[in-house]
């Protein structure tokens, strides 16, 4: 059986800000260590035949300067590619552009550390509405898929069943626990607790979960 809480606890989450393209941007960071080589994790993240096994079907050219499109989700352009350690791309969705950066590093005790940063110019009103969980919960779902891809037999979740899984009790619990973890990361970054709580509850509801009472 897949352990939702164990997966939530295995992820490091961080909320911050940085100057990006001349403006202050919000940065949402997720990281997890996988029991696989750097080369294997790189292939899972960049091979168009393998990405659909844990994330979403993808079309386009997965190379420097190439344009990609994830089915029913974002598309963009690969802006940096340094195999097998890092790549960066635009993340274009709903008429807006943000950016993702992926870094891989071999862990001293074995395995590979996967870190993804999502960088976005977000106005204060929108940030106040949902906080980091707006993208954070989505990335938690993504790297959960990757964890299950590298996990024990029987752990893998067919991405085609993702919507149905989210509607299950296990899926709703995952959303609740992910959103709660992003609430904690938001508070750790200096957000007012009441504001962070309200944003997290709205995020939980938006992803189909139920806010804690």
From TrEMBL:
Family listed: Belongs to the AHA1 family.
Record-annotated Activator of Hsp90 ATPase homologue 1/2-like C-terminal domain positions: 36-148
InterPro entries assigned to the protein according to its UniProt record, in alphabetical order: ASHA1/2-like_C (IPR013538), START-like_dom_sf (IPR023393)
Protein name in UniProt: SRPBCC family protein
Origin organism lineage: Bacteria, Bacillati, Actinomycetota, Actinomycetes, Kitasatosporales
Organism expressing this protein natively: Streptomyces siamensis
Signal peptide feature range: none
């Amino acid at each position: 059986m897949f352990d939702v809480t164990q997966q939530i606890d295995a992820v490091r989450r961080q909320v911050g800000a940085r100057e990006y393209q001349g403006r202050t941007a919000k940065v949402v960071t997720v990281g997890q260590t996988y029991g696989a080589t750097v080369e294997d994790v790189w292939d899972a993240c960049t091979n168009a035949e393998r990405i659909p096994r844990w994330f979403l079907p993808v079309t386009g050219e997965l190379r420097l300067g190439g344009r990609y499109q994830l089915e029913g989700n974002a598309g963009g352009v690969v802006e940096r590619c340094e195999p097998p350690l890092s790549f960066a791309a635009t993340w274009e969705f709903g008429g807006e552009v943000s950016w993702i950066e992926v870094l891989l590093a071999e862990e001293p005790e074995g395995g590979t550390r996967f870190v993804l940063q999502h960088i976005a110019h977000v106005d204060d009103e929108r940030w106040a509405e949902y906080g980091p969980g707006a993208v954070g919960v989505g990335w938690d779902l993504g790297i959960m898929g990757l964890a299950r891809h590298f996990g024990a037999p029987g752990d893998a979740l067919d991405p085609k069943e993702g919507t149905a899984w989210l509607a299950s009790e296990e899926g709703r619990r995952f959303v609740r626990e992910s959103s709660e973890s992003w609430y904690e990361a938001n508070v750790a970054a200096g957000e007012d607790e009441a504001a962070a709580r309200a944003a997290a509850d709205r995020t939980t509801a938006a992803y189909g979960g139920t806010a804690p009472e």
